[in-house]
Write a structure and sequence with these properties.
It comes from Streptomyces fimbriatus. By secondary structure, the chain is of the alpha/beta class. It contains 14 helices and 18 strands. Helix 3 packs antiparallel against helix 10, helix 4 packs parallel to helix 10 and helix 11 packs parallel to helix 13. The longest helix has 22 residues.
């Protein structure tokens, strides 16, 4: 054990010394994976972990699933080329055929597939380029908390700046930290009205955009499911104004939310879908699926160097087929509902859990300062959700607790559980277990998470507040959408 521990520590030291400080997971998860199967990772130090990070959602079937490995071996053993740009191959044809079997009917009937790559950001850039070329317009509507990397520094930013394109951020409805302080149906209605006003009012200063992009469940925003009625309203608003709607299914696709594609929960058919992460069966692969009337060769310049990754296509075909044939989306819906129920029961017992939310096996636990107080820039202050005199549900959540979230993540790792953090303040513990997770594994995950929450919650917040002056409560969330010039 001493030898393996020494090797483990040496690898971590060399990584820290030689790699950029911009690493995302490594600083918080000091492990060295050497073997993995399904939900389980074994580190170089011999410890085993249950993995609820799942490669940032890329591992729909978990690590090294047999059908994925077999598909990869088959391509390698066949002697087929591994990379051929966008030339037609049997592997490519099989992937597209399987992908079309899974698409929402309204889109599959008239879809085209555009390969780009290898990151989801490349696919977003391609989708935006697509709608700009098709409409002749430049602006883009997106939502606060977005995952799309639409701000300065994204690959699309340089193109947006050079064309004078504007990105307008609109309020995204949610209950716990509703931008209008209301939550529920009323909050979603106000968010939809705000969008309608931006689209229709000359006073908004926003010209008719080239398109709108939305995540059916925001991932980096803190695991925020879009209300189904609101998403249907957004679809009507865009369709009536000939504004293409792009659904970013990077994190939500391939059964993750309990439907094969998350837009299916609301019955919405987008004009384009950005697909990444799980569609490559753990290997880099991204595509944009779009309506045929948006197709044009002028918008095909941003396809990247690797739109012909044959191993990823083979792994993706195997993954899509296995999820479809074995009803894993339905399994995710059932198992995810049970996990949410248990976590909500736990939330009733722990004041540091502000809200439990999610859809399918995409789950978020938002952590808050249980004693309230000044928000210190982390969120809206107040005693928690309230009810106004007219019976309307108010939304005054406690301040976010990013320090507590870090402590929970650390306690989880000590108990052999890998979790991720997200949300605008990194105060949301995120669970993305593979769709193959069993009831027993789910129970073990929840046991370890509950134990970690209770252990971390024992550390009081008083020592932090005692060192800092108190200020009057203030709200920091603004319902107004803002327009940013990229670049």
């Amino acid at each position: 054990m001493t030898g393996t521990t020494t090797a483990h520590e040496g690898i971590l030291r060399r990584q820290s010394a030689r790699e950029s400080a911009a690493r995302t997971c490594a600083p918080a998860l000091p492990i060295v994976p050497v073997r993995a199967r399904g939900m389980t990772i074994e580190g170089a130090d011999g410890r085993r972990y249950l993995d609820c990070l799942s490669g940032a959602g890329a591992l729909a079937l978990g690590h090294n699933h047999p059908v994925v490995l077999e598909a990869i071996r088959k391509v390698i053993d066949s002697g087929a080329p591994l990379h051929v740009s966008d030339l037609a191959t049997p592997v490519r044809d099989a992937f597209i055929t399987e992908l079309f079997r899974t698409l929402p009917p309204g889109l599959a009937d008239r879809a085209r597939v555009r390969f780009c790559g290898p990151a989801g950001t490349d696919a977003v850039a391609t989708a935006l380029q697509l709608v700009r070329a098709a409409t002749g317009r430049a602006g883009v509507l997106a939502f606060t908390g977005t995952h799309h990397a639409l701000t300065t520094g994204s690959p699309d930013a340089a193109r947006s700046a050079s064309s004078g394109a504007q990105i307008t951020l609109l309020p995204y409805p949610q209950d716990y930290r509703c931008p209008f302080g209301i939550g529920g149906e009323r909050g979603a209605e106000l968010a939809a009205r705000w969008t309608e006003s931006v689209l229709d009012s000359p006073a908004s200063g926003v010209p008719l955009p080239a398109g709108m992009i939305v995540e059916p469940v925001q991932g980096d925003g803190g695991v925020l499911p879009a209300p189904d009625a609101w998403l249907r309203r957004i679809r009507r608003l865009t369709a009536d104004r000939s504004v293409p709607l792009i659904a970013d299914e990077t994190l939500t696709g391939v059964g993750r939310t309990g439907a094969f594609w998350a837009v299916e929960h609301s019955g919405v058919t987008p004009d384009a879908m950005v697909l990444s992460a799980a569609i490559g069966g753990s290997l880099p692969l991204t595509v944009v699926v779009h309506r045929d009337d948006l197709d044009n060769s002028a918008s095909g310049t941003h396809t990247g160097t690797f739109p012909g990754n044959q191993l990823a296509m083979a792994a993706g075909t195997a993954t899509l087929g296995h999820v479809r044939e074995n009803g894993l989306a339905e399994h995710a819906a059932t198992l995810g509902a049970r996990m949410l129920d248990r976590l909500r029961t736990l939330a009733d017992e722990l004041a540091c859990v502000g809200e439990v939310r999610g859809r399918g096996l995409m789950i978020g636990v938002e952590l808050v300062d249980p004693e309230g107080g000044d928000d210190e820039g982390h969120g809206i202050t107040g005693p928690g959700p309230t009810v106004t005199p007219d019976g309307t549900r108010g939304c005054r959540p406690r301040p976010a607790a990013p320090e507590l979230a870090v402590a929970v993540q650390r306690e989880c790792l000590r108990r052999g559980l890998i979790v991720d953090l997200g949300g605008p303040c990194a105060s949301v513990v995120r669970l993305f277990p593979p769709l193959t997770t069993t009831d027993g594994q789910a129970g073990a995950v929840l046991d370890r998470l509950a134990d970690a929450l209770q252990a971390a919650a024992r550390a009081p917040f008083a020592h932090r507040r005692a060192e800092q002056p108190r200020h009057p409560p203030r709200e920091r969330h603004h319902p107004a959408g803002r327009t940013e010039r990229t670049g």
